[in-house]
């Protein structure tokens, strides 16, 4: 690969958009250019590089091996240029867009976010919640807090906390059957969302391999925090992550009848695009939240 002396900045900008969208047409729509103009700029860049960057197929394009190597570096370079310009603008305030699962947002983030804002008063925080995995290339978000295994292509992920789970219920509900003394006693009560695979895994770990959950009502409440509210109200037994409900346990609103904790390999992670890891507001939030969880900083 032999580069010419002229630095093709405009062609690189077009290449970055085309690689990100996987489409010359959508790149043109973003940049206000015709598809022909996009193709021309890509051709100029390929001539400059001396290698093809895209495989052209009917109604489809794909990056070549050279294009795959170039795309993330170009994307990171434009991100750094954008942040450099933003850092010297007259508007000193910047907005951090956080996408989180509803349970993590309500049970942890909302209770701790104030300390981040005290440390970074120039960062305005906007929080959106959903269990859906967002596409950073299509949705306006800086960082996401996800549950999963931490392996998402193109994203840098940092472990925040283990997503352990165990049954929890109100003391009054436990007393209604004379107390919960063995794992099988839980089956005398309503199971909140018996279709949740966590239940089968927990009962097997507890020595109840065939709890007969298939015939029970399956009510999805949409988020673990809602199931916890139902359990506090005495409406059934919920399988929950106890780290989120330490206050409820301490206040006696919930009890954890057994020390048996399970984990299905999914945990809570902080994730953001790899090419934006040096963005000041992302770096500030990353360092703050990793510190809150006692995780090593980069």
From TrEMBL:
Domain HTH lysR-type: 7-64
Keyword Methyltransferase carried by entry: no
Keywords: DNA-binding, Transcription, Transcription regulation
InterPro entries, per the entry: LysR-type_TF_proteobact-type, LysR_HTH_N, LysR_subst-bd, WH-like_DNA-bd_sf, WH_DNA-bd_sf
Domain of life: Bacteria
Xref: Pfam families: HTH_1 (PF00126), LysR_substrate (PF03466)
GO molecular function, one term: sequence-specific DNA binding
Gene Ontology biological-process entries: DNA-templated transcription
Gene3D superfamilies in the cross-refs: Periplasmic binding protein-like II, Winged helix-like DNA-binding domain superfamily/Winged helix DNA-binding domain
Family of the protein in this entry: Belongs to the LysR transcriptional regulatory family.
Stated name of the protein: LysR family transcriptional regulator
Organism: Rhizobium jaguaris
